[in-house]
Design a protein that fits this description.
five-stranded parallel β-sheet, 8 helices, alpha/beta, 33% helix, single chain
Length: 201
């Protein structure tokens, strides 16, 4: 379970939110909603341990994430809104490189299967710079099918996806949650998935 108590976020002279509490357990997902500039991305970065909160504490299975450090990161996959892929590498090379950076085995067969699932069969060995914006996004999201992380934190994961890719990603999230995973995401779209919670900031 991931819990946060009394989170306060200040950026510059502005207080984005304060006294924020949340709890998301195995088999659940949380949809973070709010107006532009409300602090959704800042909250996700704080939950991922990438940015400090002004006040408050985040715990993973009851332990502060500051104390867990690398152990927490092994359970976490964070994909930012502006997550990038390396343009000069192929989709397959991007996935195997990401696996190595995550400290996971670079399973080429699994990477090929993930790329095929996201509609990139036949483009595995094409440099990413030749792909469309939506295809590049699919390469990034294919990491979800490769990396065996318990906690997914996703910032606007449906951006630049067509209807088919939105359905693919939705089914992947449902599968992850059904297997006891946890997902926290932001999206301007309504997401009709089971076992969801909503946090509005």
């Amino acid at each position: 379970m991931l819990t946060a108590t009394g989170l306060t976020c200040v950026r510059g002279e502005r207080r984005l939110f304060s006294g924020l509490d949340l709890a998301v357990g195995a088999g659940e997902w949380l949809h973070v909603q709010g107006e532009n500039g409300a602090g959704k991305t800042s909250l996700l970065r704080i939950l991922a341990g990438l940015a400090p909160a002004e006040e408050g504490e985040i715990r993973w299975h009851g332990e502060p994430i500051r104390a867990l450090a690398e152990e927490y990161r092994r359970h976490l996959l964070f994909l930012g809104h502006h997550g990038a892929v390396k343009e000069d590498l192929t989709p397959l090379e991007n996935l195997t490189l990401a696996a190595r950076l995550d400290g996971a085995p670079a399973d080429e067969a699994g990477a090929l299967q993930a790329l095929a699932r996201f509609g990139l069969r036949g483009r595995e060995d094409l440099p990413v710079r030749f792909l469309s914006a939506g295809q590049k996004r699919r390469v990034l999201l294919a990491r979800l099918a490769v990396r065996r992380a318990k906690l997914w934190i996703l910032d606007e994961p449906f951006t630049a996806l067509d209807v088919k890719a939105v359905d693919m990603l939705s089914r992947l999230i449902v599968e992850h949650v059904a297997c006891g995973g946890i997902v926290i995401l932001t999206s301007h779209q309504s997401i009709p998935l089971p076992n969801g919670k909503v946090l509005r900031i």
